[in-house]
């Protein structure tokens, strides 16, 4: 068991299951609606807690009634959140449309991000790992640098999902960089190995990983070959929302265990595959099942 701090966003997710994707101007009925907590770092936190780690989420929370959906879920899953600044506003909200393999997300956010002052409440030395979502680059860069000075032994992980202005400064600050397929495609790479080859010249000190949806994941140690592992699909794929966040939880769990990057990829894809079998993130029983890849 390790102590892991997850820095990023917690959202209110409205998840509509549809029998087809809506056309423009179409009015349609959804098959089901789930109103639940979401957000990348928050999803990863909930999964890590179920793996037995001591986990805290750190991000701004809106001072609004709807936030109770988020905090209740943290409470149920044993994720601490007491250090989160409460700000006036509404929680970041996603309308998510799932139909078959299609997944559309409409996201709205006007809640301010964390500032450097907010980070002063955190003692980095008590955490084995601090994982960041790449959001407000300038603040995150300074927070990581301060954490590095105050707690050199604490490992830093950074998820890079979307392009952000000036984000390159972060590449040399993390021990593990977790890239998304979207980011690679946005950087004009359709080939995962070519993307990682390019990226390792810009981030020569970090372990790099890259999820590639149903095609599995890729990764490399700073001085090692680029490895690929296939996805581990369940019998029936029920819901891939947050598969990437669950994959990240597997990577962080592997970092704690001192796994090689390749073993970490296996752990990530196995865990993400289990998540795809269920709606949401209550992996409890699946984690106890003695199937082909035991986590
Ligand atoms: P995101 O959910 O952030 O879009 P990806 O689609 O890259 O992230 O998925 C992350 C990981 O989740 C993949 O590397 C893969 O292991 C797993 N995964 C995603 N989709 C599936 C699927 N349909 N079946 C099995 N595993 C999947
Ligand atoms: C899934 C997710 C959702 C959230 C959205 C934010 O990865 O974290 O829970 O609404 O992405 O971009």
Describe what you observe in this structure.
The structure is a single chain. By secondary structure, this protein is of the alpha/beta class. It has one domain (about 5-20, about 30-295): UDP-N-acetylmuramoyl-L-alanine:D-glutamate ligase (3-Layer(aba) Sandwich). Helix content is about 30%, strand content about 25%. The protein has nine helices and 14 strands. It has helices at about 40-50, 65-75, 115-120, 135-150, 180-185, 190-200, 245-255, 260-275, 285-290, and strands at about 5, 10-15, 30-40, 55-60, 60, 85, 95-100, 100-110, 130-135, 155-160, 175-180, 205-210, 215-220, 225-230. An eight-stranded mixed β-sheet has the order 4-1-9-10-11-12-13-14, with helices on both faces. A hairpin with a 2-residue loop joins strand 7 and strand 8. Helix 1 (about 40-50) packs across helix 7 and helix 7 packs antiparallel against helix 8 (about 260-275). The chain is globular. It starts with a strand and ends in a 7-residue tail after the last helix. The structure holds adenosine-5'-diphosphate and beta-D-fructofuranose (FRU).
């Amino acid at each position: 068991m390790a102590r892991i701090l997850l820095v990023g966003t917690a959202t209110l997710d409205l998840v509509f299951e549809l029998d087809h994707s809506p056309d423009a101007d179409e009015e349609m009925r959804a098959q089901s609606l789930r109103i639940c907590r979401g957000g990348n770092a928050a999803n990863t936190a909930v999964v890590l807690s179920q793996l037995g780690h001591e986990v805290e989420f750190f991000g701004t929370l809106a001072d609004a009634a709807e936030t109770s959906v988020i905090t209740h879920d943290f409470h149920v899953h044993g994720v601490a959140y007491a250090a989160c600044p409460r700000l006036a506003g509404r929680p970041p909200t996603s309308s998510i449309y799932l139909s078959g393999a299609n997944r559309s997300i409409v996201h709205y956010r006007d809640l301010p991000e964390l500032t450097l002052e907010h980070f002063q409440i955190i003692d980095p030395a008590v955490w084995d790992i601090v994982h960041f979502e790449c959001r407000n680059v300038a603040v995150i860069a300074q927070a990581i640098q301060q954490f590095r000075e105050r707690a050199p032994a604490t490992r830093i992980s950074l998820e890079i999902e979307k392009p952000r202005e000036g984000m390159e400064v972060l590449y040399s600050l993390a021990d593990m960089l977790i890239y998304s397929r979207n980011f690679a495609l946005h950087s004009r790479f359709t080939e995962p190995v070519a993307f990682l080859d390019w990226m390792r010249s810009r981030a020569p000190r970090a372990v790099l990983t890259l999820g590639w949806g149903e095609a599995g994941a890729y990764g490399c140690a700073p001085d090692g070959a680029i490895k690929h592992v296939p996805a581990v699909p369940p019998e029936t794929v029920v819901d891939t929302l947050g598969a990437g966040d669950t994959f990240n939880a597997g990577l962080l769990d592997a970092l704690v265990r001192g796994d090689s990057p390749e073993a970490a990829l296996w752990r990530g894809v196995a865990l993400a595959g289990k998540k795809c079998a269920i709606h949401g993130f209550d992996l409890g029983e699946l984690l106890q099942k003695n199937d082909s890849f035991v986590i």
